[in-house]
Amino acid sequence: MPRPRTVLWIDDEVESLSAHLLFLKEHGYEVELAAHGDDALALLRRQPYGVILLDEQLPGRRGLELVPEIRSIDPAVPVVMVTKSEEAATMHDAIGIRLEDYLVKPVNPRQVLTVVTRLLEGDRIRQQRLARDFVTRFRELEQRRGAPLGWREWTEVVVETMQWDARLGQSDETGLQDALKGFQTSLHDDFAQFIRQRYPDWLAHPNEDRPPLSVDVCSEFLVPLIEANESVMFVVVDCLRLDQWELIKPQITELFDMEESYYFSILPTATPFSRNAIFSGLFPVEIKDKHPAWWGDKDDESLNAHEAELLGEQLKELVGDSVPVRAAAARARLPVAEGGHRAGLQLHRPADARARRERDPVRGGARLPGAARRHGDVVRGLRAIPLAARGGAARRAGAADDRPRLDPLPHSGDRVCQTGRDRKPALQVR
Questions:
Q1: Which helix (H) or strand (E) holds 175?
Q2: What average pLDDT does range 247-258 have in this prediction?
Q3: pLDDT at 231 (0 to 100)
Q4: Any bridge partners for residue 333, and if so which?
Q5: What is the pTM of this model?
Q6: How many CB atoms lie within 10 A of CB 65?
Q7: Confidence category of residue 301, pLDDT binned at 50, 70, 90
Q8: Handedness of CA 84, 89, 90, 91 (dihedral sign)
């Protein structure tokens, strides 16, 4: 629910605020003044206000001392400190108790209006801009969809669509969400037709221009990191859709410097096939031929029981030497290529049907509780990565930014590892 367009200004020098009050009223805001903290608390108990502008130097209690009582009356009201105090300690205290802003007098009316507008109307303004941007871009995406698309263009369209899905899902624009849903349905049909036409050619001509597939993930993305670093942590988050990734990505970027790249899953996209293809660099029929004891009439879980061994075999073939691999358990097996004290993080997600949107039955941007729990599990799991990956050496050296850094990834398709692609197709699609 939007907050009222009212301002409670707590300041004992009310005679100096006339220009500010007039300017705020001209822009549609009602302003009430209080020269004493106790008077302000009494007003706040009688009615809610949209925002509180608070002076620090007041008769009686200091402004900062009033904040706990203000929040006990209205926990959600934004509080902005407007004070003459330029002491660093006061500013730090204000930041420490999470005040919404801090202005040092003298301030001009436009500064105050800007802060009040941001706090009271920022969400509405951002939503209006989001709607305008989407409508404009939606027309362009429709036009682009009507033209022939290669795998690179399909990747760009799918990624952008999922980004819009995440942004609109957190807004109240149900009409735009429905428009995007209809576009995605048509897009899925077109993409399925594209895969039916092109996937056999990708298998029959692996050295020609095609996207990285599951079998190429290690050769094209993991091996360059191993060659450039003493140790690499390889994290595979199973069944994480691209739209889900877009929702949790802001939390992950707080932990790591990231570069994103995309690959296409092999077919079938089910976990026993696509995930084993990542760790082994082999198509399912190749795994069956090479390791018949590991493949056959088994349940899905047992088919994924040898991921560490498959990864070790593949890395030995690609690197030319044995690479120690340790499988770490964290709700799932997390193969780790070890060799020293440094660690890196790499996330890869398929850009095909495994990233398709499975809509929640509850619309309006709400996520199912199970999905929300899964998002939290992924973020907590990444936060649990050993401290060695958080740049301990950089911290000891006093670096300002000690997040783990990754070397830039090669653009997908620009670097083709012959070891991973130069073989006859192992799967026929009819």
A1: helix 174-204
A2: 81
A3: 81
A4: 329
A5: 0.71
A6: 12
A7: low
A8: positive
